[in-house]
Design goal:
The complex is a heterodimer of chains A (about 110) and B (about 120). Chain A is mostly beta strands. Chain A is built from no helices and 11 strands. In chain A, strands 2, 4, 5, 6, 9, 10 and 11 form a 7-stranded mixed beta sheet that branches. In chain A, strands 1-3-8-7 form a 4-stranded antiparallel beta sheet, with no helix packed on it. With about 120 residues, chain B is mainly beta. Chain B is globular, with a radius of gyration of 14 Å. Chain B is built from no helices and 12 strands. The chains are: A mainly beta (about 110), B mainly beta (about 120).
Chain lengths: ~110, ~120
């Protein structure tokens, strides 16, 4: 089955630690996206990538980093510089000019 | 910049009631408009979309019409079911480079249907 997988589903981090969230898609989509979801604030774009080896900052990129070495994979690292990282993180992908398809999400909690 | 404003929740209705969730947008040009649904603990699923003025998107009994004159895309359903309980997001998109779309979301409306 084609789709987007995110792992892990739940992630706990101690303050001061970096942590990497995985996003993989087998839809052959060029574009991939990372969003952060907080209660009452909808989704906000962190980073997006339109092709391999290229990515751009979204609206709230500070404290996050990404890489796009393969078309299928777009991992997100939450660094210790992110002041309030507890949130629900959603990955998405899309074909050119097409709708975005979302993964099931990773809930990150800082202890 | 682009923005989406949608009806604040939570919204609680009885089963078989009529549903309206309001959504208005601010954008230049002709964005595409979407409604996404999020069930508890899951990612977002596209519910319906409309790509030009006066288009009507529909799916699973839900409908929304792209009204450019009022910059609105209100979601409606004639008879809701308990299984419709979820969070609903209105969104607009623009085509960036390479033809890929960037989405701007509203804050979401939580809908609860009581049997």
């Amino acid at each position: 089955d084609g789709g987007i997988t995110q792992s892990p589903k739940y992630l706990f981090r101690k303050e001061g630690q970096n942590v990497t969230l995985s996003c993989e898609q087998n839809l052959n989509h060029d574009a991939m996206y990372w969003y952060r979801q907080d209660p009452g604030q909808g989704l906000r774009l962190i980073y997006y990538s339109q092709i391999v080896n290229d990515f751009q900052k979204g609206d709230i990129a500070e404290g996050y980093s990404v890489s796009r070495e393969k078309k299928e994979s777009f991992p997100l690292t939450v660094t210790s510089a992110q002041k309030n990282p507890t949130a629900f993180y959603l990955c998405a992908s899309s074909p050119p000019g097409g709708e975005q398809f979302f993964g099931p999400g990773t809930r990150l909690t800082v202890l | 910049g682009d923005s989406v404003t949608q009806m604040e929740g939570p919204v609680t209705l009885s089963e078989e009631a009529f549903l309206t969730i309001n959504c208005t947008y601010t954008a230049t040009g002709y964005p595409s408009l979407f409604w996404y649904v999020q069930y508890p603990g899951e990612g977002l699923q596209l519910l319906l979309k409309a790509t030009k003025a006066d288009d009507k998107g529909s799916n699973k009994g839900f409908e929304a019409t792209y009204r450019k004159e009022t910059t609105s895309f209100h979601l409606e359903k004639g008879s809701v079911q308990v299984s419709d309980s979820a969070v609903y997001f209105c969104a607009l998109s623009r085509q960036g480079n390479f033809g890929n779309e960037k989405l701007t979301f509203g804050t979401g409306t939580r809908l609860t249907i009581i049997p």
